Structures are given as structure tokens and as C-alpha cells.
Amino acid sequence: MSETITIIPYSDKYQDDFRRLNEEWITKYFKMEEMDRMSLHHPKEYILDKGGYIAVALMGDIAVGVCALIPSNREDYEFELAKMGVSPLTQGKGIGKLLGQHMIQKAKALGAKKLYLESNRILTPALSLYQKLGFVEMVGATSPYERSDIQMELLLN
Prior knowledge:
Blueprint: E1 5-9, H1 15-29, H2 34-41, H3 43-46, E2 53-59, E3 62-71, E4 79-86, H4 95-109, E5 114-119, H5 124-132, E6 136-137, E7 150-155
């Protein structure tokens, strides 16, 4: 990869990128849901102010990927790994993997013992990435998202 990827903590300067990078994949495969709109249009209130974290992947000074750790209401899980989006122009360059590894380290630093995520089986590159990061399918879990048909967890030791 010729261009260096830097992963930095989110700041308000990246709010439009956070929304755009997620809306791109959501609207390509699914439809926007109310929970998407709330977190993507108000990441400070819905994620950061509740103790969550958002990372931004930069190629040069351009935001090409984002991901969030959202404090979890699910029992036994401190955070949900969510809102991972990588620009279609830069997919296949390992940016999702770098973001995922960064988020796992951040969750550990925040004292998390277990992470979970929600996805959909049609997103095979995403599921493959999550498996490479160590996530395994949770059986019998439910989701507030219409599009979610698979939940995965990662034990952080």
C-alpha cells in the first residue's frame, strides 16, 4: 500500500465523514433505520457522551474509514463494535482490519471483557474480517436492527 493509513480519535471535524462513510454502505445494501440516523447525525450525544469511542482512518488527510465502540445495553458486554464504514474507493487495502484491531485495543484499554457486533450475512467481506479479528457467531441473540441477521462476540483476554 503506497499511502499510509493513520487512525485517530474522532473529532467534530469528521462528523460529515462519519455519517457519509456509513450511509454509503447502509444505503447500498439496506435502508437507513431510525437508530442509524440518530447515531450518525448525533455521534457526540449518542456515542461519545455515553462513554463510547469513534476512530477515523485517514489516508493523508482524507477520512477513508470510521468505526465506533458504542456502550452496550446488552448484559455482559461493555461495548458494541459498530458503524464501521470504509470508502468504496479504498476497500481491499486492509483499512477495515486496521480499524478493527485499533478498536479491539481501545476496548481493552477501556476495561472491556467482551465485545459484540451486529451484521448481515450478505456482507461477506465484513463477516470474513470479523472472523479474522477473532469474533465468533452468537447463537440465539436478538437485534433491534431490521437488517441484522447475525450477531458475533469477541472475548478480550
